[in-house]
């Protein structure tokens, strides 16, 4: 992953070092809700984040199933 500055760690920092990329799963969302840093989120926003993450996971799984089908053992 290469960021705008041309270095691979720029992209990693952009993804994991900001609030927009740090809510990749519900565990991180709950952890950020308990923190008081600038990357934290309001506890009242947690249900919406978890719902969006769950919908995204379901849509991602459906896309993979559509593209690759089911394997038979």
Compose a concise summary of this entry.
By secondary structure, the protein is mainly α. Helices cover 56% and strands 0% of the residues.
General description of the model:
- With 73 residues, the chain is mostly helical.
- The chain has helices at residues 8-16, 26-34, 46-68.
- The longest helix has 23 residues, at 46-68.
- The chain has one domain.
Topology:
Elements: H1 8-16, H2 26-34, H3 46-68
Helix pairs in contact: 2-3
Shape: elongated
Termini gap: 35 Å
List the domain count as a whole number.
1
Strand content: under 5%
The computed structural class is mainly alpha
Helical content (DSSP H or I, runs of 4+): 55-70%
User: What's the number of helices?
Assistant: 3
Low-confidence stretches: none
Average residue pLDDT: 74
Following the backbone from N to C, one meets helices and strands in this order, namely HHH
Number of strands: 0
The Rg value, from CA coordinates, equals 16 Å
The profile of the biggest β sheet is:
none
